[in-house]
Every structure is written in structure tokens, then in C-alpha cells.
Amino acid sequence: MEPIFLAPYFQKKIWGGRKLETQFNYDIPAGDIGEAWVISAHPHGPSTILNGALKGKTLDVAYKENPEYFGNPKEPVFPLLTKILDANDSLSVQVHPDNEYARIHEGELGKTECWYVLSAEPGSYLIYGHHAKTKAELKEMIESGDWDHLLRKVPVKKGDFFYVPSGTIHALTKGIVVLESQQSSDTTYRLYDYDRVDAVTGEKRELHLQQSIDTTTVPATDPKLNIVTTTQGESKVTEYLQPPVSPFFYVDKLDVVDELQLSRGEHPYVLVSIIDGAGQLVVDGQQFGLKKGTNFIIPNQVHDYTLTGQMAAILSAPVEN
């Protein structure tokens, strides 16, 4: 059985740039490309399978038609989405709903996410959290545009990791590139967009002030992560997220030096994105070349696999309910 390799789906964004081409050597469309949906079964941008018996299918179709590759899951939709984001300009200040609010109002999953920072220009920062103590204070500060007092700014550098549960006010700002692991959702509520005007429509982008107030967690609190690093020879595995802190996905970083032997374990399948370096994936004696920007899934039929070479990867897997 082979791993499932995937081709990204690219999204144009008002804040996008060209770093997906220059940093990852992706063949991206013309214009401002903000996002590569590198492992996606979301209908707004599904990835296409590049190899094996499922070659040519989009991941959403494969998930429905070939459930055995994913451990015959109970979830009706593929629950995870991996993206690479190029913030050539600042994203809107935004918040995402939880599962219940999104189900009622949007008909899809909520959106909890996390970021691994791939690059950041000197002086870069995130919007991460807020200073309002009550919902009434939050509403007053949003409606009056008191952003300097409301928004919390956090310095950021390459290699940083941030967990962003639903209900967290947040934004990437200019000069940052991240790999984002998230629930498979495309629901975003904007509360501030710097009064930008869309080049096509000539109008300001829509804001969602009431939804933002409804879904923002007050007061804001920083998640307490239990980050654990283990070594295997010179290679190491850093566990960033696991239950109960993260109820929807596991996220690890793999740093491969020569060889790293891995197991799918109890996960029904595993998502892997190579974020630096190059090497090989070995499955049942078969070797598959890997380089920065390669994305694949270890399906349910594969239990043990090995990474060789000099590279770094982000791994994620669903939490089964």
C-alpha cells in the first residue's frame, strides 16, 4: 500500500503574495496568492491525489468513496485541513466559531486551528487575543473601533507555535508565513479589516460584527500546552498538541537527521507536510522522494513507515470521538 500524495489548491487573497512560489517552488497562478490548501477535502478547495489507485480523485471524493483508506470513519466529512499561508499583507482581525455555532449558522464544522511559523520578517507580530473583560466591554470596543486598547499584539519569529482555539481573536500580520493545521472549515468572522477596499468590487470587505461578538471567548485566556520532545538518534519528535488541550487534532513536528522510524499507532490516518529539507519516505520497502512542499497522507493500511534524509515536517491526525 502506498502513501497518498496530494497536489495543493491555491487561493487568491487580497493580502497574498508570491512566497508560495519563491519559498516552496509551487507553480502558483498569477496574482496575489495567499493560501495553498495542501491537504484539503473542503469543497472550497479540495486537493487532488497524485498517485496510486486513487490517482486523479479529489480528497473529498476519495474520503466518501474509499473509506477504508481512512479507517472507515464515522465523521461524514474529512475533519482536518492543512494550509500554508503567505501574509504578504496583514489579514483581517477575525474570529472563528465553535462546532455548535457553526453547525447552526453556517452548516459546517467550527474552526479551531494552530500555526507553525515558517518565516517572519524582523519586527513581525501576531494579533492573538484581546483585553476586554466582559462581553459588554468587547461590544463597546469593537463598535467604537478602539483597536489599540482591544487587541493584543505578540512578537513572532520563525519556529514559534501558536494554538488558536475557536473564539480566539487573531490575525497574521504582514511578513509572516505559516503552516496551519485546522478543522476543515472555511467560516471566518471579520471584526476589522483596516478599511481596505477590494480591487475588484471597489468596496470594503464585509464585516461580521455581531457574529464576532457572539463567538469571541471573554475573557481571553492563553491555552496551556504540554509540549514534549523525544529523540531517536539525532532525530526528534516534538508533540505540540494532543487531547485534552486539543479536542480535534494531534500536531507534531518531526526533525529528521539521517533516519526516523515512525508508526501510525492508533491514528486512523496521518497527514504529513515537509516544511524544510529533503529525503525519502520508506513504506514496505518502497521509497518515495520528498522535498520541501511535499504533502501526503499515511493511510489506514500502512502502520509503520520511515523518513530518511535531512528534513523537517509537520504531522497531524484527527482525534476520534
From TrEMBL:
GO BP field: carbohydrate metabolic process
Keywords recorded for this protein, A-Z: Isomerase, Metal-binding, Zinc
EC number: 5.3.1.8
Binding site for Zn(2+): 96, 113, 170
Residue ranges of domain Mannose-6-phosphate isomerase cupin in the record: 246-317
Segments forming domain Phosphomannose isomerase type I catalytic: 6-104
Positions annotated as active site in the UniProt record: 190
Cofactor binding note: Binds 1 zinc ion per subunit.
Pfam annotation, one family: MPI_cupin_dom
Family annotation (InterPro entries): Carb_Metab_Reg_Kinase/Isom (IPR051804), Man6P_Isoase-1 (IPR001250), Man6P_isomerase_Firm_short (IPR014628), MPI_cupin_dom (IPR049071), PMI_typeI_cat (IPR046457), RmlC-like_jellyroll (IPR014710), RmlC_Cupin_sf (IPR011051)
GO molecular function: mannose-6-phosphate isomerase activity; zinc ion binding
Catalysed transformations (reactions): D-mannose 6-phosphate = D-fructose 6-phosphate
Cofactor: Zn(2+)
The family this protein is said to belong to: Belongs to the mannose-6-phosphate isomerase type 1 family.
Entries under NCBIfam families matching the protein: manA (TIGR00218)
Protein name as annotated: Mannose-6-phosphate isomerase
UniProt source species: Amylolactobacillus amylotrophicus DSM 20534
